[in-house]
Amino acid sequence: MERTLVLVRHGQSEWNLKNLFTGWKDPDLTELGIEEAKKAGARLQHDGYRFDLAFTSELVRAQHTLNLILEELGQTGIPIRYDIALNERDYGDLSGLNKEEAAKNWGEEQVHTWRRSFAVAPPGGESLRDTLARTLPYYVREILPEVLSGKNVIVTAHGNSLRALIMVLEGLSPDGIVARELETGRPMVYQFDAVGRVIEHKDLLA
């Protein structure tokens, strides 16, 4: 399993449960989120995955997910790198608001545009394009070289920051990446050849 990259969106957070825009706010996992993370780790352990290195964001829900996965794997001693580049998209003025409340304040069409367009940012926040602009360079500079050196790498992060990686790995268009839904706690596995091409992709827990 050399040159393997596993991406995992964090388990359900307290604000996911409350239907709030989260962004760079820092709620922890719910009980369900903890179970999702443990289940992801158990599946990876069952399938024989071993990791040399881990990356995660500076937000607790992603870090907690990673720690639970590594505990299930019995691999808590591997190096972990934390970086703000892997943080969730910043929702700006929407952060902390209930999504239905935001629709009442700004209108459903406007909030839908902020959530689902590629280039339009909410007030004081980031568009998906902005998120890609900080996440992709970090991936190219820090994560991909480790994978291509023969290491097996796991990344736990967030729905929108992971879309940056998936956009490149799966060759998706801006419209395609916006439409890509990522389930909480489901590992996505990418296998690379020696020159950096993805030769296999599968989602676990299917």
Automatic annotation (TrEMBL):
Family: Belongs to the phosphoglycerate mutase family. BPG-dependent PGAM subfamily.
UniProt keyword annotations, A-Z: Gluconeogenesis, Glycolysis, Isomerase
EC code: 5.4.2.11
Listed name of the protein: 2,3-bisphosphoglycerate-dependent phosphoglycerate mutase
Record keyword ATP-binding present: no
Record: active site: 10, 88
Catalysis: reaction(s): (2R)-2-phosphoglycerate = (2R)-3-phosphoglycerate
Molecular function via GO: phosphoglycerate mutase activity
PANTHER family, alphabetized: PHOSPHOGLYCERATE MUTASE
Domain of life per record: Bacteria
Known function: Catalyzes the interconversion of 2-phosphoglycerate and 3-phosphoglycerate.
Site, as annotated: Transition state stabilizer: 158
Upper classification of the organism: Bacteria, Pseudomonadati, Pseudomonadota, Alphaproteobacteria, Hyphomicrobiales
Binding site residues for substrate: 9-16, 22-23, 61, 88-91, 99, 115-116, 159-160
Pathway(s) the chain acts in: Carbohydrate degradation; glycolysis; pyruvate from D-glyceraldehyde 3-phosphate: step 3/5
Pfam families recorded: His_Phos_1
CDD domains, alphabetized: HP_PGM_like (cd07067)
Record has Isomerase as a keyword: yes
Native species: Flaviflagellibacter deserti
